[in-house]
TrEMBL record, chains A, B:
<dbReference type="GO" id="GO:0003676">
    <property type="term" value="F:nucleic acid binding"/>
</dbReference>
<protein>
    <recommendedName>
        <fullName>Asparagine--tRNA ligase</fullName>
        <ecNumber>6.1.1.22</ecNumber>
    </recommendedName>
</protein>
<keyword id="KW-0067">ATP-binding</keyword>
<comment type="similarity">
    <text>Belongs to the class-II aminoacyl-tRNA synthetase family.</text>
</comment>
<keyword id="KW-0963">Cytoplasm</keyword>
<comment type="subunit">
    <text>Homodimer.</text>
</comment>
<dbReference type="InterPro" id="IPR012340">
    <property type="entry name" value="NA-bd_OB-fold"/>
</dbReference>
<keyword id="KW-0436">Ligase</keyword>
<dbReference type="GO" id="GO:0005524">
    <property type="term" value="F:ATP binding"/>
</dbReference>
<dbReference type="InterPro" id="IPR006195">
    <property type="entry name" value="aa-tRNA-synth_II"/>
</dbReference>
<dbReference type="Pfam" id="PF01336">
    <property type="entry name" value="tRNA_anti-codon"/>
</dbReference>
<keyword id="KW-0030">Aminoacyl-tRNA synthetase</keyword>
<keyword id="KW-0648">Protein biosynthesis</keyword>
<dbReference type="InterPro" id="IPR004364">
    <property type="entry name" value="Aa-tRNA-synt_II"/>
</dbReference>
<dbReference type="GO" id="GO:0006421">
    <property type="term" value="P:asparaginyl-tRNA aminoacylation"/>
</dbReference>
<dbReference type="GO" id="GO:0005737">
    <property type="term" value="C:cytoplasm"/>
</dbReference>
<dbReference type="InterPro" id="IPR004522">
    <property type="entry name" value="Asn-tRNA-ligase"/>
</dbReference>
Length: 465, 465
């Protein structure tokens, strides 16, 4: 009797040596010794490492099949679990049967057959790259991060709100919008002035992909007290950088009866919690990222976990930056939006741990952020982390109807009638923030390009697969 | 010293009677007695029930504020937690302070002030409806269901894969597509034949909203062994029914080295697990749905939990339907796609518990479903549940390249080159299914219209909020 096991379970010692096991997976590599033994490294996605199967030439299909396998072949291997002779592996399988389930058609053509590929090349093979060491590890860490986020919120009494992806609102101003339509673009129905008659479109009006679920989740916050979104958001910016995706996932919590300090507390607690979970649950993958991608990555997470976040006013930060004696590419004056170089100086050089910058000039921030008593700043915050800069952006929301309306133009007021209702009926102080999930994943893994942090990246010129 | 508590924690007895507590929330109702006492029912979204605060007229702001409050006002109430005199409540608060945080501007205009509203009316107040009993309960049950699904998969070694929302593929054929574009629709760039030149669009080609993440998640399945998607999907069908949304959330697991029976096992195990979690975690909300929405709803879930699902071939089901003596609106012949009346007869009357129908005629099913040896049927399955009909649809996927290609036309082959690659390099038997999340939520709660199962429903003519 052979027990089916995953590679992870076998490597973690969940089966006694001497027991008969069966693993199912794909060959990461194969080596044939002159002594008539083959060594097959089998991965199944459950752990960073493959398990080694030692295959003797005495198997019936050794010559006819085993010798002909190679990287990428799908196999089912049964045998005795034994202590490994090789270094770095606890156990291996002394194979008594090898079934080849799926062959590789022409090994030369297998796009990821060779061991080393650039990340750029692998993006063109998005359907096969999860079979590589790096992207297998990214996939598992992504899953753990997401699960840690969902459970952090669930265990703290938050409701997960699926805010809409398609929205009729084009006014939040967080970025360029994608239009969603079923009209025939070559020959759309025309309005009187020659424009398009969107009343004939699917939604009887113009519709777009959401840039943020914040406004809609606020409505749920003011009913359920603690809520969050975790879903895809979209920006149609023509930015070909390592930090921009046209489609990315965002986490946006929102808490009622809360001010900016509560918001900062939540951000700090969330990050500490999820980083702790990742270090515990994905020790194998994190060891790989540390070794091969970024030597500081575990220390970086541990620093976040172990230290209180510094809280600092924007105004104080500007003074520090002006007086630090450092020459910046972009000069610093009160009123500017800080650049990445400024943020990283503050977090990395000046403080040496995460910093929550608070109370930004009103003129560089969105209309819904709460006006402070000085009337020059709003209760906004950015969480700056060493090694990446801004990782979270949030604010206390303007809960006073008259102040809110004074910062909206006529069109905005009309379109957001329902948002204003929230301040008319039982308004309370509330706050929230946005956390870009792919940037978080890059921070955790040390990967540099967000295109490698999402299974199928969407960027200008690319909606392939 | 007063301890902040949620309504849920107070009602569940997490604080001793006699202790000083503070709750923050909104008034569901208020009653003023002639004896100079007011009874305020405060909800905060954490539990189905509100907590009652008994407010004596001796409070400083009793006349000036407390008497003027009403449904929807935001309050912070402190006082002693005492055993309740009223029926149906374990504890109440003997208030020593009431702070009114947010008033209701003109109670007459508060759109949900009255106790009874139709669900149809409440859809026009999607920003306020979570404050009602019913939609608060739906929100909590939705959260619990989603969390149970994520944790079921996580605890069983599945990776959560965020398949793309925007896709260049228009060929899966699961339904009508929404186009995604940044071109000026009134004046798009023209191709030579007068059509639109999509090479100038954001993605340099036509792009659409996804109808399913299945094909893309298969690629991850064949690397990670067990994966699932849980995200929004889109259908541009002009269907104004209680079962259709233009935007809905779908759960799609995919397992490697698995056949149709493994797929059915997974579906059965998943449903039993999540229904058990909901009954445990949301006892209060489920009691409400049972009492006010559908008297069979708890029994229905318990039936699914307690019984093995019957497995039946399509061909056998057709024989049963033809010979059962019942008159159906749509006549039954081998080869038809079963209608809801047939599915419900099988699950409700013939078997009396969930049925997994398997092996459907190839001609009514998608190209990627595995052809059976009879060459007339494919390894597809539908899970039919009493009270709703089809709740899950899935299949074993065609893993043999030649058979797969024989069911694809030239255009499909070209567009899905990468999908065919998966059969060329280490192909293995694999299977999966799709579970519509809003339909699941309706099944659990007894709600009839999927527009009430998602925070902001998108339907023909409606992308409001």
């Amino acid at each position: 009797m052979s027990t089916f096991t995953t590679v992870a379970a076998a490597l973690k010692g969940e089966h006694a040596t001497g027991s008969q096991v069966t693993v199912k997976g794909w060959l990461r590599s194969k080596r044939d010794s002159k002594a008539g033994i083959s060594f097959l490294a089998v991965h199944d996605g459950t752990a960073f490492d493959a398990i080694q199967a030692v295959v003797p030439s005495t198997l019936d299909n050794y010559e006819s099949e085993v010798l002909k396998t190679g990287t990428g072949c799908a196999v089912v291997i049964s045998g005795e679990l034994v202590e490994s002779q090789g270094k770095g592996q606890s156990v291996e399988i002394q194979a008594s049967a090898v079934e080849v389930v799926g062959w590789v058609d022409d090994a030369e053509s297998y796009p990821i057959a060779k061991k080393r590929h650039t990340f750029e090349y692998l993006r063109t093979q998005a359907h096969l790259r999860p079979r590589t060491n790096t992207f297998g590890a990214i996939t598992r860490v992504r899953t753990t991060l997401a699960n840690a986020i969902h459970n952090y919120f669930h265990d703290n009494g938050f409701n997960w709100i699926n805010t809409p992806i398609i929205t009729g609102s084009d006014c939040e101003g967080a970025g360029e919008l994608f239009r969603v339509s079923t009209l025939d673009m070559a020959n759309p129905p025309r309005a009187e002035q020659g424009g398009v008659d969107f009343s004939e479109d699917f939604f009887h009006d113009e519709a777009f992909l959401t840039v943020s679920g914040q406004l809609e989740v606020e409505a749920y916050c003011l009913a359920m007290s603690k809520v969050y979104t975790f879903g895809p958001t979209f920006r149609a910016e023509n930015s070909n950088t390592s930090r921009h995706l046209a489609e990315f996932w965002m986490v946006e919590p929102e808490i009622a009866f809360a001010d900016l300090n509560d918001d900062a507390d939540l951000a700090e607690d969330l990050l500490k919690h999820v980083f702790t979970r990742v270090l515990e649950e994905r020790e194998d993958d994190m060891a790989f990222f540390q070794q091969r991608i970024d030597k500081t990555v575990i220390e970086r997470l541990q620093t976040v976990i172990d230290n209180n976040f510094e809280r600092m006013d924007y105004t104080e930060a500007v003074d520090i930056l002006k007086n630090c004696g450092k020459k910046f590419e972009f000069p610093v004056e009160w009123g500017i939006d800080l650049a990445s170089e400024h943020e990283r100086f503050l977090a990395e050089e000046h403080v040496g741990r995460p910093v929550v910058l608070m109370n930004y000039p009103r003129d560089i921030k969105a209309f819904y952020m709460r006006l402070n008593d000085d009337e020059k700043t709003v209760a906004a915050m950015d969480v700056l982390a060493p090694g990446i800069g801004e990782i979270i952006g949030g604010s206390q929301r303007e809960e006073r109807l008259d102040v809110l309306e004074s910062r909206m133009d006529a069109q905005l007021k009309e379109e957001l009638w329902w948002y204003r209702d929230l301040r008319r009926y039982g308004t309370v102080p509330h706050a929230g923030f946005g956390l870009g999930f792919e940037r978080l994943l890059n921070y955790v893994t040390g990967m540099e390009n967000v295109r490698d942090a999402i299974p199928y990246p969407r960027t200008p010129g690319n909606a392939h697969f």
